[in-house]
Design brief:
The protein has two domains: about 250 residues, outer membrane lipoprotein receptor (LolB), chain A (Clam); about 220 residues, Metallo-beta-lactamase, Chain A (4-Layer Sandwich), CATH 3.60.15. The chain contains 13 helices and 28 strands. Helix 2 packs across helix 6. The protein is α+β, with helices and mostly antiparallel strands.
Length: about 525
């Protein structure tokens, strides 16, 4: 009550002297940070540190339970460089998986991130991620969406957001009290909308939030908390950044600052001439090819690997992975296979966000979702989230999710086709995973059981254990990742990948460290 009266008093006084109450809060924040003139005189800021990032934005844990522990990227060598004078920014960091999986470089040397924004041009230096590495000195233009993302990155610290709020072209409004903090809305000249909270006592910025798009979750609100303020050349700067999202209160990333440098030397951030003359890449063209595997069974390749099963009066698809574009490409291709026969349902192997990235698209397309019971609550939650600020397929065409739960197994059968959906056995990567089996043709459709492109896997026993447990006869494997193989070839891949993982775990153990997935459970 007293705080509300205090804000009311500020409103009256500020209006009487010609300054809006919102700008009074911003001016107080500027003074608390070191003074308006000093804040505005800063030309560059470099933030250096280390931290962690949630794997797949929090959608890479072992189960869909909100209580499941997260998988993490370890992040080192972080450098956020901001050139206020010219409106440029660069983020450099190195990311390593904190678990034994996929490609050896992801675990040992990591992914090197080098992302720059020069005004309205976003470009990268090097990179590669899960794909082949790109030379560190090679510049590539980033998609248009990266421009907004990097503008937000540039604003996501107290000095940047207060400087922006002091700009005459910025709109500051909606002052309110929330839990003892003065909260207000900020809209920049470029239309970026953010919300800033300021401590009512110290006047230091406490958190900054904004909304961004997400293939799995629709509109996602991010909130970065600023902690551990210390002075650098008379400017108060935080030594901790903790960013959460409004999905299960997941920590999306955390940064521990080693050093803040004001007006020190910075690298060249000007976009190269060849980048300026190159248009930003648009959505990639996707050509999905359908390979007949057996009577009424097609393997779709080109937008990840999906499998289509033909029943007497409908089609069923296995997996809508990736994102809206890849999912829609596979759905459209499936619908073209048998004219007049509708695609009515899709089996989703597990909840990991690369495999459920097309879930919202599938719901918007009216498909029934078949998945393990342990994924049901999460999938309902994902499909119920709004996408108003950044409309996706489900935001443009809202529908309620229809979902069928699988426990140990579910038999889909009519006069022309039988597909059995089984719960995957002994899987420490995705405890709530399912796979599809066609008894007539002795084939399996699966996600994350195997990929011939992987170097490492710590759950290689899942495939043979599942085959033995359900007493299956398997001749052919139709994976989401990779290509069609015989079961004998699959076992050879898994033997090699499991051995590589165990060898790595042995080296980790000898060093006195630990890593998720070690020691490897090896049944070969």
């Amino acid at each position: 009550m007293r705080r509300d009266l205090a804000i009311a008093f500020v409103l009256v006084c500020s209006s009487a002297f010609g300054q809006s109450p919102e700008m009074k809060v911003i001016m107080n924040a500027a003074e608390a940070l070191g003074g308006k003139d000093r804040i505005l005189s800063i030309k560059t800021l470099k933030i250096q540190g280390y931290g962690q990032m949630a794997y797949m934005n929090g959608g890479g844990n072992i189960t869909a339970s909100p209580d499941a522990p997260q998988k993490w990227w370890n992040v080192g060598g972080v450098e956020r460089t901001i050139d206020f004078e010219h409106g440029r920014m660069r983020l450099k960091q190195r990311q390593l998986t904190d678990f034994v999986f996929a490609n050896l470089p992801l675990v040992t040397t990591g992914i090197r991130i080098n992302q720059t924004l020069d005004g309205d041009i976003a470009y990268n230096l090097g990179g590669g991620g899960f794909g082949p590495p790109i030379p560190e000195n090679k510049a590539t233009r980033a998609p248009e969406a990266a421009v907004r993302e990097r503008r937000i990155e540039m604003l996501d610290n107290p000095v940047s957001i207060v400087r922006s709020a002091l700009d005459a072209t910025t709109k500051v409004s909606g002052l309110r009290n929330e839990a003892g903090r003065q909260v207000l809305d900020i809209t920049t000249a470029r239309g970026d909308k953010l919300t800033l909270a300021v401590d009512a006592t110290t006047h230091l910025p406490v958190w900054l939030s904004w909304v961004g798009p997400d293939a799995n979750l629709g509109d996602v609100r991010y909130r970065t908390y600023f902690t551990g303020y210390q002075a650098e050349r008379g400017i108060m700067l935080p030594f901790g950044y903790n960013t959460k999202i409004d999905f299960r209160d997941i920590v999306q990333n955390k940064l521990y600052v080693d050093r803040n440098t004001i007006d020190g030397p910075i690298p060249e951030l000007v976009a190269p001439a060849e980048i300026r003359s190159t248009p930003a890449p648009g959505p990639r063209s996707i050509n999905v090819e359908a390979t007949p595997v057996a009577k009424g069974v097609w393997y779709l390749k080109g937008a990840g690997g999906s499998t289509v099963f033909e029943f007497a009066d409908h089609l069923t698809m296995f997996e809508v992975n990736g994102n809206e574009q890849t999912a829609k490409a596979n759905i459209d291709k499936a619908r073209s296979l048998v004219p007049g026969k509708p695609l009515t349902e899709v089996i989703v192997s597990h909840h990991h966000f690369d495999h459920s990235g097309g879930l919202r698209t599938a719901v918007a397309e009216g498909l029934t979702i078949i998945t393990h019971r342990g994924n049901v609550d999460l999938f309902k939650e994902m499909a119920a989230r709004p996408a108003k600020e950044f409309p996706d397929a489900l935001g443009r065409n809202p529908k309620l999710i229809r979902i069928v739960a699988v426990d140990e197994k579910l038999v889909l059968k009519d006069s022309t086709m039988e597909v059995v959906v089984y719960h995957a056995i002994n899987n420490s990567h995705m405890a709530n995973g399912v796979f599809a089996y066609v008894p007539r043709d002795k084939l399996v459709a699966e996600g994350d059981f195997v990929d011939e492109g992987w170097d490492l896997v710590y759950w290689g026993n899942t495939y043979p254990d599942s085959v033995k447990f359900y007493k299956l006869q398997v001749d052919k494997d139709l994976p989401v990742h990779g290509g069609i193989h015989t079961y004998a070839e699959v076992l050879e891949y898994l033997k090699k990948q499991t051995k590589n993982a165990q060898d790595l775990c042995d080296r980790v153990e000898q060093s006195g460290l630990s890593m998720q997935g070690c020691p490897v459970s090896n049944t070969f």
